[in-house]
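Table 4 source record.
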Amino acid sequence: MSPGCMGAFFAIFLIAGLGFLMVFALPAWNVVASRSWTPVECEILSSSVGNHAGEDGTTYSIDVRYRYVFNGVEYSSDRYEFLGGTSSGYEGKQAVVDEMPEGSSVTCYVDPDDPSEAVIYRGFTWVYLFSLLPLLFIAIGAGGIVWALASHRGAAESKVGGHFGATGEGSGAFREVDSWATPAAASGPVELQEPLSPMGKLGCLIGVCIFWNGIVSIFVWTLWSEWRSGASFDGWMAVFLIPFVLVGLTMLVGIPYQLLALANPRPRLALSRAGVPLGGSAQLDWSFRGSTGRLRDLRIWIEGSEAATYRRGTTTHTDTEVFAEIDVVRIERGRAIAAGSTTLDIPVDTMHSFEAPHNKIVWKLKLTGSIAWWPDVMTEFPFIVDPGEGRQE
């Protein structure tokens, strides 16, 4: 699938997540804003449990109507809570209705800027927790779009090597090559590109962290404020929120970790040819920008993987299997880590790079370097494996 199609696919996730989040955003905002509304005594005119038959069974709602006086003017309302709709659970709703019999008085909360707006229950209910689910879609969608854009940029830079340096002879020169060219044509060196830079990873992490913790913090703050105001502690909601809070804390810890990783030495890999043929070889040059004295060891290896996409019922699945893992460089300490050259060999009995609608073969050069008491260097560089003279298609 092309990067453009992948971007459009992930955009659907992002739009769906944002759309579903908006369903809960306005009611959630009203819950927060109503903390400053004026408490007023209201008279219950009628109250009952509404029954709503549907294809999935019967759902119920709290149907109530009440009147109140604000600044000498009488108003009426039928809003019990900000998030309306129906749900299962008859007993719980009946218990609420029993506490508001016709003719009784309850406290409702009135918007002083618009007295026609009132509500009886201005807290969060467990239904609002569904608003956390869109965060998963938003994270997948935003992350996928960034990945697709990075893949598109990497593919464009792999196909045109002229921007890496001036055309000419010698090991430092890079000239324009076609990443799908035959071995005879793809003879010029090309610098490989990371799909996503450390700064890009940090930006994605911060964006997801803001979305996730912003929503979760509303529920935590409400739970805490209601308990501090004298209400009974809602243990069930607290237990439900624990995993969401832990995920948010993990992302918060990940931000300074990724910030530290920005100070790591940045690897640079260059191949002597843009397309390495099956059964062929290429020269691999590596170097680092930054302080390499902190690196304790270096490992560079080749990974070939196959990704197959298929449908299982109404769900689409993608399975990835690594079929080749070949060590290229292993160095422990010493100046040789900072820069060097070696030969990269591709076995003839494997498969060349290709991409079809439901299947693709991806080759990567993966690199790790450990640093004591610091985030390790971990990255990967996609590259092209050509069919070779005997297996061209």
